[in-house]
Amino acid sequence: MVAADLEGPYEPAVRRADLGLRVHWCVLPFRVLLVLTSHRGIQMYESDGSTMVYWHALDSGDATPVQAVFARGIAASGHFICVGTWSGRVLVFDIPAKGPNIVLSEELAGHQTPITDIATEPAQGQDCVADMVTADDSGLLCVWRSGPEFTLLTRIPGFGVPCPSVQLWQGICAAGYGNGQVHLYEATTGNLHVQINAHARAISALDLAPEAGKLLSAAEDTFVHIWKLSRSPESSYIEAAPLL
Fold first, then answer.
1. If both were cysteines, with which of 36, 118, 186, 195 could 75 make a disulfide (CB 3.0 to 4.6 Å apart)?
2. What does the pLDDT read at residue 227?
3. What's residue 4's pLDDT?
4. For the chain, how are helix, strand and coil distributed in percent, rounded to 5?
């Protein structure tokens, strides 16, 4: 059992989930860490939860008195763990093969509003490949190439609707929005290929079965839908067929 640090004033108008309480298994090439985020900071544990190997306190120096401070959005990319924050910055932690010598190596500054989600996929040794996408409360998506220094490849503009969840699959960026739509973009260019009116209310989460190419969407309308993703062999255009 792992105890998250949730001390602090209770805010009845704000749900705990909105303050960024998240738990995620980060599978790295050489170890697995359990990462928790809250409005206090970021905790990293060994895979069995027995030992906390790293704690990062959130800096509220730039926050206004009415602004909530939290971390939200967790993903692993190579030997890095990336965590989004209330300020729109993404913290990049360099993880050693063993031990607690974890280092905050970089802060990515592509967003101006709070991060909602982060998704990654293995780069598989390709050059200039988009292997991470970050989303925020304005609906803006930033597409990155990971490495010793992360590179911003493109920005996909928002349209005034939050993007609570994103996924990456074979260079396709799937984004679920607060208006119930799912958009499929070409990650490297940001070109919109498919727009699906998937749900009657806000998307809560997207998930992928990478080997099967199946995308699952869940929303506040209480429905779950499954979509089969593919590329047209003639045009390389992205297609999505409903399965459920």
1. 118
2. 94
3. 58
4. 0, 50, 50
